[in-house]
Design goal:
The protein is α/β, with parallel strands linked by helices. It is built from 12 helices and 13 strands. Helix content is 38%, strand content 17%. An 8-stranded parallel beta sheet has the order 4-3-1-2-5-6-7-11, with helices on both faces. It has a 3-stranded mixed beta sheet with strand order 8-9-13.
């Protein structure tokens, strides 16, 4: 089976990702046949952020597509516990250019799954700031053929002047101006966000009130699209809007998730204003207040027709996602 290098830069999940077929993998893009890559133009991919919420499904789908995946991580022992066993693990840090050059040696491409820490200050080192600069330098040193980058559909929001939006835009500018062929993904809300960010015990916290609907997508479907992009040279220097098959407001998606959970979780509404007040004394609360405010006010429209035509159409419903997610937790 051909190689994918993964630099885990972000919180490590405590739950292993199952690569084997499950209820989730029988739906959506994952059900379409993916060819092996013996003769492909890209065989080895470095994925930076493999152990994150969205790095895990992308890594699993890259492996399933026939790529060789290696994780470049700061903590090898912890990464080996949660990544698919087919994943190679190498130690590296995006603050350390020498380790990046070593980790990217012999690779064909790099996929970036980065994030800004909720406690971060504007003046701090940022993975999507100085980190991207270091990655680009290491990629040039090793002659990589492609950079893939997970951004966000809300990166062009005009609702506020939140500095993190500028960090995202700067990362896009660096990648597009690097001279290395790129593929950039602009996703809507992920179903994983509800399962991993809003569940507290037997409750699901619903923050604020959505003005617009979003085309929610599951990480499995997105991961399959990423894998397809690396299978095609025609996706170079392209930007793809990532959206799922059905429009739902944040409220609707949260309620459907709760109702389809095996224990029928209770939805608890939290005023956005309360989170903003807490943000006066807590950087984490301030981060989440800004994030939710931006997401809830973003006037999303459907723009993924071209993405579906080229990378496959997602089909996983929120109910199918919930069942699959809870099956993973029970293993």
């Amino acid at each position: 089976m051909p190689p994918v290098y993964v630099l885990a830069y972000g919180p490590l999940s405590a739950r292993p990702w199952q690569l084997s077929d499950s209820a989730n993998s029988q739906t959506g893009i994952a059900s379409c046949g993916m060819r092996r890559n013996e003769d492909a133009w890209v065989n080895k991919i470095a994925v930076i952020g493999a152990t994150g919420m969205l790095g895990l499904p992308v890594t699993a789908k890259l492996l399933k597509a026939g790529f060789e995946v290696t994780a470049l991580v700061r903590d090898q022992e912890r990464a080996r516990r949660i990544l698919p066993e087919q994943t190679k693990v190498v130690q590296a840090d995006i603050r350390d250019i020498a380790s990046l050059k070593y980790g990217l040696k012999g690779q064909d491409a790099v996929y970036l799954n980065l994030s800004v820490a909720p406690t971060a200050r504007k003046s701090d080192f940022h993975a999507e700031g100085e980190g991207v600069k270091n990655i680009i330098e290491a990629a040039h040193f090793n002659g990589l053929k492609r950079t893939g980058y997970l951004s966000a559909i809300i990166r062009d929001s005009t609702e506020n002047d939140w500095w993190i939006l500028d960090v995202w835009r700067n990362a896009i500018g660096q990648i597009k101006g690097s001279g290395i062929p790129y593929t950039i993904f602009y996703p809507t809300n992920f179903m994983e966000t509800i399962a991993q960010r809003h569940v507290v015990g037997g409750f699901v916290a619903l923050v604020g009130k959505a003005r617009f609907a979003n085309y929610w997508i599951a990480g499995d479907d997105y991961g399959a699209q990423v894998a397809r992009s690396f299978q095609s040279e025609s996706s170079a220097n392209r930007e793809y809007v990532i959206q799922g098959p059905e429009a739902m407001t944040y409220d609707e998606a949260t309620v459907r998730f709760a109702k389809s959970s095996k224990d029928r979780m209770r939805v608890v509404k939290v005023p956005l204003g309360l989170l903003r007040c807490l943000g006066v004394v807590s950087r984490t609360a301030d981060f989440h207040a800004h994030m939710m405010g931006t997401v809830l006010r973003y006037p999303e429209i459907f723009r993924a027709a071209e993405t579906w035509a080229e990378l496959g159409k997602p089909s996983m419903t929120i109910e199918e996602f919930t069942v699959g997610h809870q099956q993973r937790l029970s293993h």
